[in-house]
Every structure is written in C-alpha cells, then in structure tokens.
Inverse folding.
C-alpha cells in the first residue's frame, strides 16, 4: 500500500513537472519581453536578470509538492490494485490538473498568502 502511494505521488509530481516546464518557458519569454521594453531606459536589464527577479523557487517546490499530493489523492480513489498504463496516465493527469484545484482551494482559504 505504501509503495503504491509513493508511486502515485511520483506520478503526480511528473504531471506537475510537465506544467512547470511549460510555466518556465512562458516565464523566460516574459522576461525577454520585459527586458526589451525596459531597454530604452538605461541601465537596461538583461533578460537573465529579469528572469531571476521573476522566478520564485519556493513556488516551484510548493507546486511540485502539491502535484505529489494530488497523485496520492488520486491513488486513494482507486479500487483496483493494478497499476496499468491507463491508471498511470490518469494519475499523471491528476497531478497536472489537480494542482489547479488544490491551489484554488488554498487561495480561497488563505487569500493573503
């Protein structure tokens, strides 16, 4: 049971990791845009400097942890003991999509944080 829960958590983390990769790509594009917009005013920041200012490592780790939890919660709803490919993909999807649900709940419960 514990092994299944751990495996499901890792699968959820993978699902969230996919979202993280997409988010980091968008952040990089946003940093390049901001750097271009601010290039007219000296001193112009480099895109990497803007990226470093926008990137929040705590949010990254929290997001991955929430993906792990979403995978564990998805596993608890299963009735069979088999980890077929369909089940694995469903848990990865739960980590990808479930994170929005969990983060939404936290934002409503803790609006100032």
């Amino acid at each position: 049971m514990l092994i299944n829960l751990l495996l499901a958590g890792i699968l959820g983390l993978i699902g969230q990791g996919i979202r993280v990769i997409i988010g980091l790509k968008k952040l990089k594009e946003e940093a390049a845009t901001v750097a271009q917009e601010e290039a007219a005013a000296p001193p112009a920041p480099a895109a990497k400097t803007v990226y470093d200012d926008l990137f929040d490592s705590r949010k990254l780790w929290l997001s991955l942890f929430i993906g792990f939890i979403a995978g564990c919660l998805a596993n608890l709803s299963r009735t069979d003991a088999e980890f077929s490919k369909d089940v694995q993909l469903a848990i990865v999807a739960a980590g990808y999509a479930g994170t929005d649900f969990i983060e939404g709940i936290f934002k409503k419960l803790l609006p100032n944080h």
About this structure: DSSP finds four helices and no strands in the chain.
